[in-house]
Amino acid sequence: MKKKHDLNTKAIAAMKAAIKGVIAQHKKSGRPLPIWENGKLKYISPNKL
Predict the structure, then answer these.
(1) What range does the domain containing 32 cover?
(2) How many structural domains comprise the chain?
(3) Which of 17, 43, 44, 49 pairs with 37 at a CA distance of 20 to 30 A?
(4) Rounded to 5 degrees, what angle do the CA atoms 28, 17, 26 make?
(5) pLDDT at position 39
């Protein structure tokens, strides 16, 4: 059971790292970041990231 827990932990860490990278890219390029909120697509300004 330990291996499954370790794999889950690694997957979550990889997802968090990927999200941080995407946010950094959008901030650097000045593009708004699309997110899904309350069943609708919303864009966050790079100034608010």
Answers:
(1) 2-48
(2) 1
(3) 17
(4) 20
(5) 96
